[in-house]
Amino acid sequence: MKIATYNVNGVNGRLPVLLRWLAESQPDVVCLQELKAPEEKFPEQAILDAGYNAIWHGQKSWNGVAILARNAELQEVRRALPGDEEDLHSRYIEAIVNGILVACLYLPNGNPAPGPKLDYKMKWFERLTIHAAELMEFGVPVVMAGDYNVMPTEIDVYKPERWVDDALFRPEVRAAFKTLVDQGWTDALRKLHPNEVIYTFWDYFRNAFGRNAGLRIDHFLLSPHLDKRLLAAGVDRHVRGWEKSSDHAPTWIELADE
C-alpha cells in the first residue's frame, strides 16, 4: 500500500501537475494540503476520472485539505482538529481507508515570529499533540501525514544557521514536534534514511530547487502498528521540476500488507 502526501499549493491551478503525478506514481492514498479552493470548487470529477474517490475540506483562497483513495472507499471520521471550536481554518481531515486511520494535516506556518501567528501555531501543535495521544490509545493503525511546517533537525534544512529565528525552525517549534513524536510515533523517512539529506520543499526564489536549497517539512508519523509494516519511503523530487509545479514535492511511503 502506497500512501503519499502533497502540498499542491492550489489544487485547481496545479491540477494538470497533480493528475500527471497521480497517473505516474499511482499511490493508493493521497493527502493533499493547500487546496486554496472553497468546497464547491474542488475538482471532484477530474479526481474521479483519474480513479480516485475523495473527501475534502475547502476554504476560499487559503488552506484546505483532502484525502484521495484509489479504487477504495473513504469513511470520513472528522474534518476539524478538536480543541477550538472558533478555529475555522481548513487544516485537518481524517478518514479510514483500507483499515488504516489516515489523518491529513496542514500545520500553521507561524511567521512572522514572534507574534500572534506563532502563538496560533503553538496552540495548534498542542491540540494536535492531545488528539494524537487519543489516536494512539485507540490501538488501530494510524498515519498522520501532511505539511507540518517544521524542520525537526539541522539535517532537514539547507544552511540551518539562516533559519534560527524562523517559525519553521525555532527551538520551541522543534521541541513541540519532538514531544509529539515521543508519544511513540515513527518519523517514516528518518527511520529508513537516518542520515540522508532529504528535502520536500524548495522556494521559488533564488533558484532554490536548482541549488537544492530545500527544507524537509512534509512528514509521515506512523503508529507502532504501521511502523512494523514500513517498507520504503521517499520523495518524488523530479515533480518539483515540472512546469507550473508546487514548491513542494510529493512525499510517500510504502506499507506491507497485514
Automatic annotation (TrEMBL):
GO terms for biological process: DNA repair. The record marks H248 as: Interaction with DNA substrate. SUPFAM superfamilies: DNase I-like (SSF56219). Probably binds two magnesium or manganese ions per subunit. The record marks N149 as: Transition state stabilizer. Pfam families: Exo_endo_phos. The active site is at Y106, D147, H248. GO terms for molecular function: DNA binding; double-stranded DNA 3'-5' DNA exonuclease activity; endonuclease activity; metal ion binding. The keyword Transcription does not apply. Mg(2+) binds at N7, E34, D147, N149, D247, H248. Its cofactor is Mn(2+); Mg(2+). Residues 4-248 form the Endonuclease/exonuclease/phosphatase domain. Keywords: Hydrolase, Magnesium, Manganese, Metal-binding. It is an enzyme of class 3 (hydrolase). It comes from the Bacteria. The record marks D218 as: Important for catalytic activity. Its EC number is 3.1.11.2. Belongs to the DNA repair enzymes AP/ExoA family. This is Exodeoxyribonuclease III. The lineage of its organism: Bacteria, Pseudomonadati, Bacteroidota, Cytophagia, Cytophagales. The gene is xth.
